[in-house]
Amino acid sequence: MGDTKRGRERQGQKKREQLREQEVERTLTASDDPPDPQEDEIEFGE
Predict the structure, then answer these.
(1) How does 4-17 read in b/e, with b if 16+ C-beta sit within 10 Å?
(2) Which regions are flagged for Acidic residues bias (predicted)?
(3) Residue 1: CB partners within 8 Å, gap ≥ 6?
(4) Quick one: which H or E segment has residue 23?
(5) What is the pLDDT of residues 1-46, one digit of tens each?
(6) Whole-structure pTM value
(7) What spatial distance separates the first Cα and last Cα of the chain, rounded to whole Å?
(8) Cα dist. 27→14, 20, 24, 32, 43 in Å?
(9) Per the count of CB atoms within 10 A, which of 13, 34, 36, 41 is most buried?
């Protein structure tokens, strides 16, 4: 079967849905607290 515009559109729509679902999942599982800074990451302009 050949490549059709409709098939490409459906694939693109499915990709967008998957990306949206992944973003929502990341947002829901993300912590509200920022990560603690590591001591070696802190610089005071030395």
Answers:
(1) eeeeeeeeeeeeee
(2) 33-46
(3) none
(4) helix 5-29
(5) 677 888 888 888 899 999 999 999 988 887 666 666 666 666 666 5
(6) 0.52
(7) 65
(8) 20, 11, 5, 10, 30
(9) 13
Task: Work out whether the CA dihedral 11, 12, 17, 20 comes out positive or negative.
Answer: positive
Q: What is the pLDDT of residue 20?
A: 94
CA angle 15, 20, 24 (to 5 degrees): 150
Q: Could you give the CA distance from residue 7 to residue 14 in angstroms, rounded to a whole number?
A: 11
Amino acid residing at 19: L
SS (H, E, C) 26-40: HHHHCCCCCCCCCHH
